[in-house]
Amino acid sequence: MEIRRATPRDLAAIEEIDGTIESHRYLHIDRTGEGMQMGWRVEERPLRQRLIEPFRLDDSRRLALRQVVEGTDDGIALVADNESQIVALGLAQANPDTSLLHILDVRVDSDHRRQGLASAIIFQMVQEARSRSCRAIHAQTTANNFPANQMFSRLSFDLAGLDTHRRSNHDLVKESVTLFWYASLE
Question: Per residue in 25-36, is it b (16+ CB within 10 Å) or e — as a string?
């Protein structure tokens, strides 16, 4: 298994990575207080029913991936290559105005999960961010993507905020609140 920079030849194979999200737990977000006294409590809970959700590359990630791989945009695109088969992707873009590296996507094919590939890709992104003098790395997940939330927590990312209306007006009820993760490099 080799983790390396993605090349234009890899683009078709990246589309074939089965990034299906499977989870039986989620991070429950409970709002307390009102107005400027509002707060949030986060706790792990079981999902009402097991989540199995396809996680395909959407158009914005596909475009960002192509731009990073072809060198028209500043970023990092890493793949895990297992005997000439692409089994994982890590995609991030640098924001020089804020000195942040924003992780856009980390996906591991379902047949190759639980082997540390996502963690290894993120560690390489951290090294790249440090070499670029970034002050932090930022990522987003949803509350019901428990495997991703667990990974970012385990890798010492801090839960830095949330958005209860990013996807719809009912994200809190649907257990799909957007969570913002942050890892300081300073």
Answer: bbbbbeeeeeee
Residues 6 or more apart whose Cβ sits within 8 Å of residue 145: 21, 23
- Check residue 173 and give its pLDDT: 57
Predicted TM-score (pTM) of the model is 0.89
What are 52's strand-pairing partners? 22
Token pair for 151: 């990974």
- Rounded Cα distance between 71 and 57, Å, is 19
Under-70 pLDDT residues of the chain: 167-174
CA 21, distance to chain mean position in Å, is 12
Separation of alpha carbons 88 and 78, rounded Å = 8
Domains of the chain: 2-28+50-184 (3.40.630.30)
Whose tokens are 């089994």? That residue is 87
Position 169 scores a pLDDT of 58
